[in-house]
Each structure stands twice: as C-alpha cells, then as structure tokens.
Amino acid sequence: MANGQTVILSNPVARQRAKSLIDRAPEGAVCNIAEARRTNDQNALLWALLSEIARAKPRGRVLPTETWKALFMHQAGFTCTFEPSLDGQGVVPLGFKSSRLRKAEFSDLIECIRAFAAEHGIQLSDERQAA
User: If both were cysteines, with which of 21, 74, 122, 127 could 117 make a disulfide (CB 3.0 to 4.6 Å apart)?
Assistant: First the structure.
C-alpha cells in the first residue's frame, strides 16, 4: 500500500475491499471518502459546448472558451475570489476550477450552458443529433 489505493464504491464487493484496506492500513494512514468528481465525458461535453457558444458569438461577444467557462461557472452559482497580482497591476480570479465539481454540480453547469444557448437561439450539436 505504499502508493495508496483508490476504490470506487460501486458494488458490495468494492465496499468490502475498501473495508479490508481500512482494516489493514498502518497506524496514521489517511482515508478520504468523497463523492465522485466530474467524468471525462462531462468534461469533453463542457468544452464542446463552450466552443459552440464561442463560435456563435452571442450578442456579438467574441470571447475565448476559458472566459465563457468562467462566465457560466459564475452564472451557475460557483463563485470565485480575486487577489491582487504579484506586480500590483491587476487582479487574478481564483476558484474557477470545474475539475473540483462533483458530478451533480457539473450537470448543473452543463444545464446552465444549455439554457443560455436556448435563450440566445444557439442550436447545440448534441441537441441537433438528438432531434
């Protein structure tokens, strides 16, 4: 167990494996049980949607996908803080890391983007394919 173990609690066998690892863990070992973070598929969808929004230029706004992501994170209720830059010439936003979102939170972010697209008449590829 020198490098640690990750167990996804997806079934009774996996849960038993986790319990066994805890029972055999050395004194002072650290155990972290957390809700699953966003999936790779969710992340790929996010960047595809952001690219489509950026290409559509809603209200004439020409912004990179990273900026759209920050705007949608804010719109979905995920806040950030600002710190002065090291040279004192501006501020740096902190906290817009979608990789830290849980699956449900990430779904909320995706729905926020879809709602924006619908409000602005932007037909998204995944919606065209479903139609």
Answer: 122
Alpha-carbon dihedral sign for residues 112, 48, 78, 37: positive
The verdict on pTM exceeding 0.85 is: no
Q: Does pLDDT of 127 surpass 70?
A: no
For residue 14, the enclosing domain spans 1-33
State the total domains in the chain: 2
Shared-domain flag, residues 27 and 50: no
Q: Are residues 9 and 58 in the same domain?
A: no
- Give yes or no for residue 115 having a pLDDT over 70: yes
